[in-house]
Design goal:
Blueprint: H1 6-9, H2 19-23, H3 30-42, E1 51-58, E2 64-66, E3 71-79, E4 91-92, H4 95-100, E5 112-113, E6 117-120, E7 124-127, E8 130-131, E9 135-143, H5 157-161, H6 163-177, H7 181-202
Parallel strand pairs: 4-6, 5-8
Antiparallel strand pairs: 1-9, 2-7, 3-9, 6-7
Helix pairs in contact: 3-6, 6-7
Length: 216
């Protein structure tokens, strides 16, 4: 099979390894299918290749910090020490819990202090209290890779490490456009199974950590 890269995937029906060749259809909207396939994968895949370190600062009198553009989920968050601020690890909570813990002074203004909890919404990290000073932070988070597109980004970790996931997802997206329900469901099941296995394998490193099991 031809190397998995963007040009091969979106190639004509006559190109070995292309999606059009696999589904035997020359006129599917191939660029949109690959875009939709990537989005679908990143909603579900959580592997080490997606982990990224992001830093920022929660500035004085604010309660939100902007998330990285390709953010998918947080894994670990802490305020880092900077000479005047001690390192701390706010707890990750539901966004509703964070909002329920907003507090106000006698004038109705938001109270200030050092946040103890956080949650992520679509674009920001949100805290339960406004910062009483600048708090530098470090976020370990899952991020999508830059989208595959033309000759400017022919490959990413999906094409290199998980081409089977990318192909299976692209096939089911193509068959969905073709309204071929049987093939769509088959390839969706394949894609879901491969993603589940990849997520499990990504956590194998836990085998070498100290895990305390409590029997009740």
């Amino acid at each position: 099979m031809a190397e998995t890269n963007y040009s091969t995937l979106v190639g004509a029906k006559t190109v070995a390894g292309s999606i059009k060749e696999k589904v035997n259809h020359a006129n599917i909207p191939i660029a949109q299918i690959v875009t939709d396939a990537e989005a679908w994968i990143y909603q579900r895949l959580r592997v080490r290749e997606m982990l990224a370190h992001t830093t920022g600062t929660l500035t004085t009198s604010t309660y939100q910090s902007v998330l990285p553009a390709l953010f998918r989920a947080s894994k670990f968050f802490m305020f880092t020490a900077n000479g005047t601020v001690a390192k701390s690890e706010p707890t990750k909570e539901l966004l509703e819990t964070v909002l329920q813990n907003w507090s106000y002074d006698g004038t109705g203004a938001r109270t200030v202090g050092k946040p103890q909890m956080y949650a992520a919404d679509g674009t920001t990290l949100t805290f339960e209290i406004e910062a009483d000073q600048n708090y530098p932070w470090h976020l370990l988070n899952y991020q999508a890779a830059a989208a595959l597109v033309g000759t400017t980004n022919e490959t990413n970790f999906l094409t290199g490490t998980y081409p089977h996931i990318l192909r299976a997802t692209s096939y089911f997206q193509a068959y969905q456009w073709m309204k071929n329900e049987r093939e769509k469901l088959y390839w969706r099941k394949v894609a879901e199974g491969e993603i589940e296995q990849a997520n499990v394998e990504s956590d194998f490193e836990l085998i070498d950590t100290d895990i305390v099991m409590e029997i009740v």
